[in-house]
């Protein structure tokens, strides 16, 4: 974290080395088979809930890339359960925006577009900047204690490199701020927006940028705790802009194979 010494309030954070939109991360996990039903030791998940979690993990690891079709029949065979169980797992995933259910076509791994991403972050920046002022005015020492505990969980998740857990914790930070402000309408809207951003970051955020996000959350809390509302707003605006810019939302360069279908053929 860098403070501008020339009296300016420019916050640079970790923007400079984040390498956003320049480097492509190697997707080392792409060639791995689905974890499901592939190991002898662990039994395949068989409840809708567990199946949904397993599919979510595969989406997070990009073994099921954005846009991949999720045929019920094939999944039922892989997990060795009924199609009804698969269907309810897919409905759960659709609620979390991880899967799109298209009538007459079936289920697909969600594929957020550049435009959708921009729109989501535009709205978030606007709402959250306003929220920060209220937050700074209202947060109590107990609230800060809760946030510190949350930051500790984030730190651990960033270290563990579990993309799914990491993305949802980084996203929950913002929801927690909204809850503390106590505006239910705002919390509700932000939950939806942050949920959609969490999916996008899970798919497109590098570990390094996730670590930056965590650092920026800590810097934000420090400024808010010191009662510096202007600085806190600035840090939040920078943070959301940084997260957005560091995402590599772009179509894959070549035709992707449908790994699930390939596995089952
Ligand atoms: Zn930054
Ligand atoms: Zn954040």
Descriptive key words:
single chain; 265 residues; mainly alpha; Four Helix Bundle (Hemerythrin (Met), subunit A); Arc Repressor Mutant, subunit A; 2 domains; three-stranded antiparallel sheet; 10 helices; disordered N terminus; binds zinc ion
In short:
The chain is mainly α.
How would you describe what is shown here?
- The chain is mainly α.
- The chain has two domains: 158 residues, GntR ligand-binding domain-like (Four Helix Bundle (Hemerythrin (Met), subunit A), Up-down Bundle); 90 residues, Arc Repressor Mutant, subunit A (Orthogonal Bundle), CATH 1.10.10.10.
- It has ten helices and three strands; from the N terminus they run αβααββααααααα.
- Strands 1-3-2 form a three-stranded antiparallel β-sheet.
- A hairpin with a 3-residue loop joins β2 and β3.
- α6 runs parallel beside α8.
- It is elongated.
Would you tell me the structural class of the helices and strands? mainly alpha
Total number of helical segments?
A: 10
Question: What ligand molecules are bound, each kind once?
Answer: zinc ion
Percentage of residues in helical conformation: 55-70%
Portion in strands? under 5%
From the alpha carbons, calculate the radius of gyration and give it in angstroms: 20 Å
Head-to-tail CA distance between termini: 50 Å
What is the CATH C level class of the largest domain, in words? Mainly Alpha
Order of strands, main sheet, comes to 1-3-2
